[in-house]
Amino acid sequence: MEEGSRKAIVAAFFANLGIAVSKFVGFLITGSAGLLAEAAHSLADTGNQALLMLGGKRSQQKPNGRHQFGYGNERYFWAFVVALVLFSGGGLFALYEGTQKLLHPHEADSIGVAIGILLAAVALESFSLMTAVREVNHVRPEGMSYWRFVRTAKQPELPIVLLEDVGAEIGLLFALFGLLMTHLTGNARWDAVGSVAIGLLLMFIASILAVRMKALLIGESASTSDQDAIIAALTGSAEVERIIHIRTLYFGPDELLVAAKLGFAADLTVATLAQAVDAAEAAVRAAVPTVDLIYIEPDLYRETV
Question: What is the value of pTM for the model shown?
Answer without folding.
Answer: 0.78
